[in-house]
Structures are given as C-alpha cells and as structure tokens.
Amino acid sequence: MRAFLKATLVWAILAAIGAVLVVGLGLYNVSARQGHLPGVSWVLHTAYKNAVWLRAPSEEEVPDLTPPSLVDLGQGHYENACAFCHAMPGQSRAETALSMLPAPPHITEAVADWEPRHMFWIVKNGVKMSGMPAWPSQRRDDDVWAVVAFLTAVKRGERHGEAQTELPAGGDLAGETGSLPLAPAAAVYRDQCLSCHGRDGFAGGNVFIPRLDTLPAAYVAASLQAYRSGARQSGIMQQAASQLSDPQIAALAAYIANQSRDRLAEHEVGNLDPELVSRGDVLAHGGDEKANIPSCVSCHGPASSPRSDHFPPLAGQSEVFLRDQLMLWKSGRRGGTDRALMMHEAIPDLTKADMLALAQYYASLPPSR
Amino acid sequence: MRGRALRFSPVALLLLAGCTGTQSALDPAGKDASVLADLFWVLLIGATVLWLAVNGLFFYVTRIEPRSLSRRLAETLVIGGGIVFPFFLLSGLLAYALSIMPDQRLEGTGVQIRVTGEQWWWRVEYIPEPGAEPIVAANEIRLPVDHRTEIKLGADKFIHSFWIPALAGKMDMFPGRETRLAVEPTKVGVYRGQCAEFCGEAHALMAFQAVVMEQDEFAAWLEKERQDAVMPASDLARQGEAIFLEEGCGACHTVRGTEARGPAGPDLTHVGSRLSLGAAVLPSDREAFADWVRHTKRIKPGVKMPPYVHLSDEKLSALSAYLEGLK
Q1: N or C of chain B: less Cβ packing under 10 Å?
Q2: Among candidates A292, A293, A307 on the partner chain, residue whose Cβ is nearest the Cβ of B248
Q3: Given this structure, which CATH class describes domain B235-324?
C-alpha cells in the first residue's frame, strides 16, 4: 500500500513537471499548419456535434423560414459577415480561410448535416476554439433566424451563387461620381449597406428591412452610433456599424439623407385590413387616455408642423418591420438613441392588437420626407 | 423641574405649529372639516377625562386608600363604572358621531369636479353642468367659497386617496369605480391636498393645491380656463412652442388650440397659471419648468415623463418661457 502511494506521488510530480515544461516553455506547437494529434480532431468534432444536438431549441420554436424577404435579409448579412470563411454557394472559399484550423466548411457542406434548429444554435452561440464567432447580440434571435432562413434555402438548393443585389458598375451608385466629399461615404454604403438596404435605401420592398430613404440624417447617425455602442442591438446592424468612425457615420448619414427620392413613390402596401388600419389611425393620432397611450404622430408624424430630426418618420415602412420593432420595444429588448427612453415609457400599455393596428396604419401611409 | 419645562417647550411649540397651516385638519377652512375637527376635540377631551378618571381611581385605591372596599361599594363601582357609565358615554358619542354623517354626505350643486388619480398626478375636469363638455386641467383644484361643490373621484391604475385636510375628510379613489365627496370651503385661501393612500413610488410627491376663491372670481376663472391656450407673447416663447411640437411633447400633453392633443399626461393649456408644478413638488416659474423637463425622474422617482436630457440649454429656456406663458 505504501509502495503504491509512493509510486502515485512520483508519477504525479513527473506529470506536473511535464505540464509546466509544455505550457511554460512553449513546447506545445500551436501552429495551425500542424494538424491535431491523432484522434484529437475526432474527439473535438464529436464533442461539438453532440453539444449542438443536446442544446438546440426544439422543433416548435422554429419560425416560418420560407418568406423570400427573410431569406434575402439573411443573405445580405451572410454576404457581409460570413461569406469570407464559408463562401457563397457555387463559389470557392478564400485561400486564407482554408488555411484555418479547423478549415471552415463550405456553406453547402456546413448546412448538410444540420436541421434549422441546430443551425440556429450554432449561429447564435458560435463554436469555441474553432474560429466560429457567437452572434454579436444575444437579444436578437429574430435576426439569427434570418440567417438560418438563408442557410435553409441553400440547403434546399434554392439559393445558388447569385449576389442578391447587383453591384452597380463603377460610378452607378448615387454620389460615387458626384461631389467629392460624398465619394467615401458612397463606398462605405456599397460595402456595408447595399446588400440589404439596396440602392437609394429602398431595400427593394423587402418587408423585413427598413427603408432608409424616408429617414432624416440626424436619426440615421444617432442610430448608427447606438448600434456601434451596443445601445441598440442587432447582430446584423452591429456588424455593419461596428467599424465605422464618427466622421464616416456622419458622412454616411448625410449620404443616405441626400439620396435621390426617386423611389419614394414606390410603396407596396400589401394586404392590409381596413378595419385595423382605421383603428391604428385613431390610436396613432389620439392615443388613449384610459390606457395611458401617447399619440404616435406627435413624434413620428404625419403632422402639419415639423418634427425633430431625431425621430424616425414611420409612414411607408413595411407592416412586418414595424410590427417586429414594436414587439421588440414591448419586450424591453429594443435599445436605441437617447430618445429611446420615450418609447420605453410609451410602449408598456400597448396590446398586441394595438401594435398590429399601428403597424398596419403606418404601412398604409405613402412614404414621405 | 424648570429646566425640564424649558427643554420641553420648543418641542411642544413645533408640535403645535404642525396643527396650523395649509394642510391641517385642525385648522379647518371648510364646513365638513370643522365638523370633523369638533368631533376630534370632543373625542380627545372625552378620552382624556376618562383616562384621568380611570387612572386616578387606580391611584386612589392602590396608593391613597389601599384597604379593601365594602362589597357593596365594589359592586357599585364595577357595575356603575364598568358597565352603566361606559354604556351611556359610548352611546352618546356614537350618536353624536352618527349624527354628523348625513351632513358629511350631502351632495354638492353647481359646477361638478371630476378628479382621477394618475401615476402620480391628478387629472382634474370641471363639468359646468351635467352633460357639458368637461374643462380639463390638472394638479390644482379651484373651488368657490361658501358653496358646496360635488367631487367625483376615480383612479387610473392604482388606488389613491383624495384628501384636503383643511376642507373635508378623505375619500379613496379606485380604478373602475366612482366614489364621491363634497366640499364646502368657508375661507378664501390656498390649501394643500395630498394622496392619502400609499399608491407607489411617488406617493409622497403626489400632492396638489386647492384654491378657494370668491364665487364671482371662480366663475371668471372657470371661463378663462375654458378658453384655448393664449398665443405665445414673445419670440422666445414662440420658439418654445415650436420646440414643444417638434420634440413630441404633444404625444402626452394637450395644449388646447394647438396641434398638441396628447391624452396620457397632464393638460398644459393653462399650466403657467397654476401655483405649482409636477403635482405640487415645484413652484411654477421658469427655472422650475426647465429643471422639471430635464430632471423629471430625479425630482419625482417613478414619474412616467422621461427626462429630456438631450435638450440644449437654449431650447430648454425657450420651452420654459413658452410653458410659463401659458397663463
């Protein structure tokens, strides 16, 4: 018994010395060029798969992922944030991405093994030690689902390699050939905004994406600042805003506010319920004394006197976008500019039916500046 | 002994000072309040006499004449002092207290006032005659002197209690149920009312002023209150009006005669003519308006109005000039 204890102690000391040497003297080679030791890859990959299976949300929590607009939103973000490593369908991965360890799987390969609920967990949480990042905001599951909608469409073979927005041949984008100070802003717009918000900020009528052509510069700038600081959360918008400098934000806001208003007339109202629209109209104008609901038009228009440039006019935004934003406010997860406090006071007494009515009312109005 | 009396006297003075003033049930300025004050004094004097008698008796039988009483005397004392005397005394007091109740419940006539307890302020509506369009105001109640005015009480979300100690008793206010009260002020003056039922964070800061006016003055005031807001008189105030609309103040507040028709907060049509601000937490002057708009939550924790920290000093002073001018 004594001999056994003695031997154990000796081995323990030797193991500790070995560990100190490996860690302390840098003997373990962390080079990504060297593969893992035999068996380690299998252990890691198996642990990863089992962890995803264990933790993914249930089938019932998966929303409807089929709307093409949702797929487009997911694709717009994928192009900006994910394609560098995983490539667009039908295209190949960058050599640099392939040199990672583990090499990120090509999108078609990556989606093959997983159901939407698993993809959601992976996109939201990322994978430790693999280079796959977590979703920047843990409050916006809705935009994680947009990416999952795109991945699911790829898996079904519905999206191939086509870029969602045709990039204009040089000089086509407003301001790119125009007055000099706007040119850098146009380039930022092209790189960061175009894939989702489209030319002229109109978003091609995508119901999940707000149109920017009705927004004043001050509001756009303050919103970008809020995304950059994390005061307003969205994995998609925080990714786009995080690398902008203050002057870039100011220039970009001015660029967006100065874009042509050619698309302003383009407005698809979709299927609105006239009864809800008129209920929304009454509520938006008069508020509700009993329920403590302020009037919406006092800040968001339409109104006969001017409103502060720090409030977004809502006329002409899509019903879906407005409804989703109202739900975010109501759930307390929607941050924003320094005016967000006002919405936090205004929202608690709105019922779900009120929010639907308001979304329909504002969606029914023609966009205006 | 003299030293103790001297030390005691300032405290006694302070205590007595608490009995006068604008918010004292012991300094009544209304018919109902003076009946209640009488009731208080009668009961207090009665209770004091009883207390002295009972304790005097104890003292007598334990310290002065500590010998056994004859059975007859003991029984007389127990039955007489313990049953017969309290029966008649308490019956008398009960009869007196009950006798004042019908008068307390008398209905008022003329202009009716509807007061709703909100978070944490008072919505006040004057209804000149049944069915007439109410004249909306807030956080201040004006009353004609020597006239019994009917007040209908309600509440928005929480239970409050309406109490102007100098004028009448208190009455609870419930969401979804109407209670009532009538007041009959007898002295012109400004009195203070206070929420008297713990209702939430800003309960202690939920007060108001009750202004008792001569009857003809009241009629003239009400007529003025009925009018739309006055036009801003200076350039600064005109800028303030534009800022008021621009910054969305009209979402919650109404200023009659302008675009601002918000129903959720206090009506500001004549806010500049009120004696206080924020439900009697601040005076009503330009500095106070600016202070309030910028620091709502600091001045009154739990208030629904967000602090407008983003307004520049210039905008804030224009806005204050406008609000102060809403006489």
Answers
A1: N
A2: A307
A3: mainly beta
Kindly write down the DSSP assignment for every residue of B143-187, as one continuous string.
EETTS-EEEEEEESSS-EEEE-TTT---EEEBBTB-EEEEE-B-S
User: In which domain, by residue range, is A282 found?
Assistant: 274-364
pLDDT at A287 over 80: yes
Q: What confidence tens digit (pLDDT) does each residue in A39-80 have? A: 999 999 999 999 999 999 999 999 999 999 999 999 999 998
Whether the CB of B264 is below 8 Å from some CB of chain A: the reply is yes
Chain B contact for A109, CB < 8 A? no
Question: Is B306–A341 a contact, with Cβ atoms under 8 angstroms apart?
Answer: yes
Residue B200 touches partner A, C-beta closer than 8 Å = no
Q: What CATH homologous superfamily does B112-224 map to?
A: Cupredoxins -  blue copper proteins (2.60.40.420)
Is there a single domain that holds both residue A62 and residue A149? yes
Question: How many domains in chain A?
Answer: 3
SS3 (DSSP) at A197:
helix
Write down the pLDDT at residue A1: 77
Is the Cβ of B110 closer than 8 Å to some Cβ of chain A? no
Q: Looking at residue A192, which CATH number applies to its domain?
A: 1.10.760.10
Q: Is B154 helix (H, G, I), strand (E, B) or coil?
A: strand
Collect all residues of chain A within an 8 Å Cβ-Cβ radius of residue B252: 287, 294, 298
Q: How far is the C-alpha of A165 from the C-alpha of A76, rounded, in Å?
A: 8
Domain boundary among A218, A238, A265: A265
Q: Where exactly are the structural domains of chain B?
A: 31-104, 112-224, 235-324
Flag if B251 and A299 touch (Cβ within 8 Å): yes
Residue B7 has pLDDT above 60, yes or no: no
Residues 293-352 of A with CB under 8 A from B: 293-296, 298-299, 303-308, 310-311, 338-339, 341-342, 344-346
Mark which residues 239-298 of A lie under 8 Å from B by CB: 285-290, 292-296, 298
Question: Are A56 and A96 in a shared domain?
Answer: yes
Report the predicted TM-score, pTM, of the whole model to 2 decimal places: 0.85
- Give pLDDT tens digits for B219-265: 999 999 999 999 999 999 999 999 999 999 999 999 999 999 999 99
